[in-house]
């Protein structure tokens, strides 16, 4: 349908506004990336995914967390290494999407309280969080800005607020890792008993795939204190206890969503109460030891003790480091951790995690393990060789659109001059 006169005028006005903005000296994305010598590897990678690159080039408000060249040198040592080495394009694409945040988030917008920002990662093969997977951001002493991602990965902001016509770029020193499932993440935080218990109680499918999951996970020592009793009880009874640690909600329970006095409904239909006291977060009587460990489908918080579905009204005592177990049972010796035999052997470490659940970046997902690199140094060298070989083709891909933009810019400048004279 032909544009009306008013619609045509609006298009011209918006185009002229964008043209004027460009004339004020703000670089476009291509110019910004090409002018930063510490982003050459990122530029090569990004421009090889033309659809993402083109989409970013036409954004008006977006934040890009761009790993620097040193971050690329560390890929062979990370869980992303096999995917990059094997050129698993869909995985790499999701990694790139995880580094893009809608909206402009300057470094000064972060403070000492964690903020969780949505990203472009919405592919349901890798995330099951409403609206897109999250990344955490906080300003620590220094001040130093840190971004947190899957497996507790920390990426430090090294060069902030590089502005381009579509938003800003923050240069970070480490890749963000898209969060993994619970069964893949738990062993990395020494939560092997919880992982095995979830398997034994037939809850693994739910916990790994349920959308917008929040789960409070007792540490291994809490399982050891009751291990003899827990291992001998029927799986249905164990499931009832574990259900009391899983929240039934359409909103992910990041710590920022859990103010003092929050009441949460569990999968078993009972309530939990959040308390903030003595600078600590509690759920019922249990102290939260680690907050906001991101999962592919939500978040988990590590707690020091079991929650008892038969004692939902018990409250926290912030005066003691760890309270006694509410559940009664026989303990195991210090070196015996219950339920670990139920863990799939392929998820005892992240590098060999199973790909059967959503969001795996593990060796079995791509058919290659970290041993496929030989030595990491050799792999880094091979990657550098490939990068050098693609520099020319990348430059050609970028230069052609720039010629078109230059021609269009001349025409648009003339058009805007005419509009300004009317």
What does this structure look like?
The chain is of the alpha+beta class and 422 residues long. Helix content is 36%, strand content 19%. It is built from 14 helices and 14 strands. The strands form 2 sheets. Strands 2-1-7-6-5-4-3 form a 7-stranded mixed β-sheet. Strands 9-8-14-13-12-11-10 form a 7-stranded mixed β-sheet. α1 packs across α14. The radius of gyration is 25 Å and the shape is elongated. The protein starts with a helix and ends with a helix.
Number of alpha- plus pi-helical segments: 14
Biggest sheet strand order reads 2-1-7-6-5-4-3
| Share of residues in strands | 15-25%
Distance between the termini: 27 Å
Brief description of this entry?
The protein contains 14 helices and 14 strands. The chain is of the alpha+beta class.
